[in-house]
Amino acid sequence: MVTSSIAITDRTASGANVPANIPSRLQYTRTANVGQVMERQPLPVVASLMAIGSGIVWSFGAVLKRLSEDVDAFQYLIWRSVGIIVVIEILSAVKGQRFPTVRAWRSGRWMMLANFGLFVASIAFVYAVDTTTAANAAFLGSLTPLVAVVFTRFLGEKLSKSTIIAIAVGVVGLVLTVFGDLDAGNMLGNASALLASVGFAIYTISVRSDPSRDWSPVLSGYGLLMIVVCGIVTVLRDKPLVPAGDDIARALLHGAVFIVVGTLLFNAASKQVPAVPMTVFAQAEMVFVPIWGYFILHESPAPLAVLGGAIIFGAVVGKAVYDTRGGRPPELVTAPDVPLL
Fold it and tell me: Is residue 166 assigned to a domain?
C-alpha cells in the first residue's frame, strides 16, 4: 500500500473534511451518526469493484514472491522496499512534499513505533509465504483486524461482547488452519503469519493514538528500516545483495507497481464506499491468494486449513456486519493495508 504517500479525506455529514490518513489494516472508527448516514447509502458499483480489485491486485504479490525461487525473503524485501521508496519519493515530490522517508524517523516516538510495527508485519508475512503455503499465510494473516482490536485495549478501549465472540470464533479458525498443516517444516511459517498480525496491531495502536495526524511517511520509513535490516542479514548469511536480474525485477515490480496500483484503487474506493462494505471487500486479498496458489503455484491447501480460513473470514466479516445493527460505529473497519505478499 503506497497508501502512506497519498493523503485523502473523507467528508462528514456536516461537509467538513476529515483526514483518512492511510495506510493501515484498521481505519479509525467514525462517529455513530456519520457511520449510520454512510451505511444507509446505496453502494456505488464502480467504487465497490475498485475496492475488490485492489485486493485482487495485492494478491498477485504471492505469485511474484513464490516465483522468485533463487532469493530468500530478506533479499526479496530489500528490492521490494527499494521499489516502494522510489515511487513514494517521486509521488511526494510531485505533490510538493519533501523527503517522507526522512520525516518518518524525525516525527516522534509514535511514528517510529508505527514504522517498527509495519516492519515486523511485512517481514513476518513475506517469510510466512516463503515457508508455508500461500493459503495458510493469507488465512492466518486475515486475523489482523481481530488482533488489532485486542491491542486497542492499550489505548483504554473496552472489548464489546460481540468482539470477544468474534475473537473466540477466529481462534477456532486459527486452530483448524494450523492443525490442517502440522507438517513440521511449515509451523514456523504459520507462526510468522500470526506475528504479522501482531505487527499490524502495533501499527494500529500507533495510528489510533492520534487519528488526525498525517501518517503518510510511515510506508517509506518502514521500507528504509527493511532495507537496512535485511541488508545486514543478507551479508551475515553470505548471500549477494544483488541477486539475479529477474528476481530483482519481480521484487521491484511488486513494490513499485502492484502495491501502488492496489493502494490507489483502494484509496479511491474508500472515499465512496461505507465502512462495513469496505471491511468485506478488503477480504478479497485473502480469498484470491489461495486461488492463485492453486491455479498458478499448484498448491493445494489442506481441507482443515480451508475450513479454518473460512471460519476466520466469517468471524471478521460477521463482526463487521453485526456492528451495523442498532447504529453501532463499526469496530473492525479494514482500510488500505501494506500488502504483505
Answer: yes
Q: What domain range includes position 96? A: 2-26+45-327
Whether 161 is in a domain gets the answer yes
| Predicted local distance difference test score (pLDDT) of residue 182 | 61
Q: Cβ distance 312 to 142 under 8 Å?
A: yes
Residue 323 belongs to a domain: yes
pLDDT digit string (tens) for 74-107?
A: 999 999 999 999 998 998 899 888 889 999 999 9
Residues 111-162 have pLDDT tens digits of 999 899 989 988 998 888 888 888 888 888 778 778 877 777 766 767 788 8
Q: Are 166 and 316 in contact (CB under 8 A)?
A: yes
This model's pTM is above 0.90: no
SS (H, E, C) the chain: CHHHHCCCEEECCCCCEEECCCCCCCCCCCCHHHHHHHHCCCCCHHHHHHHHHHHHHHHHHHHHHHHCCCCCHHHHHHHHHHHHHHHHHHHHHHCCCCCHHHHCCCCCHHHHHHHHHHHHHHHHHHHHHHHCCHHHHHHHHCCHHHHHHHHHHHHCCCCCHHHHHHHHHHHHHHHHHHHCCCCHHHHHHHHHHHHHHHHHHHHHHHHHCCCCCCCCCHHHHHHHHHHHHHHHHHHHCCCCCCCCHHHHHHHHHHHHHHHHHHHHHHHHHHCCCCHHHHHHHCCHHHHHHHHHHHHCCCCCCCHHHHHHHHHHHHHHHHHHHHCCHHHCCCCCCCCCCCCCC
Q: Is residue 340 part of a domain?
A: no
Q: How many domains does the chain have?
A: 1
Distance (Å, whole) CA 270 – CA 298: 33
First to last CA, the chain: 11
Report which residue type is found at 125.
F
